[in-house]
Amino acid sequence: MKSKIVVTGIGLIPPYGQGIDPMIKAISEASISPGEIDYINAHGTGTPMNDPAESQAILKLFKNRGSFIPVSSTKSMTGHLIAASGAVEAVVCVQSILKEMIHPTRNLSNPDPACNLGHVTQSPMKHIIRNALSNSLGFAGINSTLLFSKSL
User: For the domain 2-149, what is the CATH superfamily, name and number?
Assistant: First the structure.
């Protein structure tokens, strides 16, 4: 497993495309390419400011593939657990890898057009996951990404 935290605190309003730096660094430190990411557990708060910013970071990093990588948000089922969110979402990523199953983003029927990602909705998705990212994007631009890899 690899993890990276990048502190980019610049105020309470997140920058457009927030979260790209920790994703880039986690992938780089794991010595894999962006093309090897099979699932993203998004920070996904369901807010009109945060979700488009995170989505733009994903689309910028993964380019055309960003719309096809399965993405879901655990917060749609748990609510925002504040300081515990990252830990719970890390467990969800590990379980997704082990069970080869991605949970859906509950209650997502009309995604924001600015969030043109590979949303998993309605029901769980069977999917082999070798590498998964879990984003945690905090107040004041304190962002982190965990990368989990399946052992062979």
Answer: Thiolase/Chalcone synthase (3.40.47.10)
